Task: structure prediction
Amino acid sequence: MPHAEKIEVAASDFVAKATDLTGTHPIRITAPGYFSEQATDILSEFVAMHPGVAFEFIPSLKVLNLSEGEADIAIRVSKSEPDETLICRKLSTARWALFGGKRYAEKFGLPKSSDDLKGHRFVTFEHDDVPTYLHNWIAHRVSPDQIVMSFSEPELMQASIRAGHGLGLVNLRIASFDAALIRCFDNIEELSRSNMMLIAPDAYRRPEVRAFTKFFAPRYAATFKLTKPTSPTETD
Result:
């Protein structure tokens, strides 16, 4: 099953579980995309232990203001330090690499380093609510005519890479679940960002939010350590 379909299934499962719960103050969680199957499994464990706790999931690329109550918890990737008024739990280091699809590799080959991009085609991701560092990394290294497509949704960009339209930057964790993506060379350290769980102070005063934070953060962080890396030479 393609990665985009998997996260849709996981999201539907998440919503179904949350809908079945009752409670006047659901824990509202926002993230730039849907929860993975691993995260949903951890949520299910917590729900089984705390059947009276309700959840609301808010998928959004826009950074919601936790201090103003737009959400209780945010799963966020950022290079800068978070607002010091927020409670922070680091989950992992998010890393990116350049990927291509099998069709592209067979037709054009793959670059072996960031100095080997001449003559290749690229697809990028741009969104008004998201920093442009991924798009800029490519744009600063290739000519404008080498960027053949730009997408406002990361899933569409990844589908374009799989289809062989061009090379693009993909998060290593996401790529590890997509066998159709082939890594060109090692991950690009300058693009690394902290993957964090941020909690609004007012929300953290609620016992169920503190319990969920203590339960979820270490278990979700552990799933990143179990992720199988994608080999630069893997083509199957």
Remarks:
- The beta strands are 27-31, 55-59, 73-78, 87-94, 96-101, 122-125, 147-151, 168-171, 181-183, 193-199.
